[in-house]
């Protein structure tokens, strides 16, 4: 079983993530894909907003 009740929470999380990754790989193979889908494949035509970047305020930085 992929989840053991006696494991530490971090180990349970690790097992869960590995299980989900393996399951996703099996599902992709069944669908005829070798890799995860890109956002463009999942939502064709969707326009993503650009990432925000932090900039200096020009006031000499933080103190």
Q: SSE layout and pairings?
A:
Layout: H1 9-30, H2 39-42
Point out poorly predicted stretches: none
Q: Helix proportion of residues, in percent?
A: 40-55%
Task: Report the average pLDDT across residues.
Answer: 81
Instruction: Please summarize the sheet with the most strands.
Output: none
Tertiary shape: flat
Q: Count of DSSP E strands?
A: 0
Q: What is the straight-line distance between the termini?
A: 53 Å
Tell me what portion of residues adopts beta-strand conformation.
under 5%
Q: What structural class do helix, strand and pairing data support?
A: mainly alpha
| Helix and strand pattern | HH
* Rg, nearest Å: 21 Å
Supply the number of helical segments.
2
Summarize the structure.
41% of the residues lie in helices and 0% in strands.
């Amino acid at each position: 079983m992929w989840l053991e009740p006696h494991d530490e929470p971090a180990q349970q999380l690790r097992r869960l993530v590995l299980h989900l990754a393996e399951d996703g790989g099996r599902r992709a193979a069944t669908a005829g894909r070798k890799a995860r889908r890109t956002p463009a494949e999942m939502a064709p035509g969707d326009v993503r907003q650009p990432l925000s970047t932090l900039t200096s305020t020009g006031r000499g930085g933080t103190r």
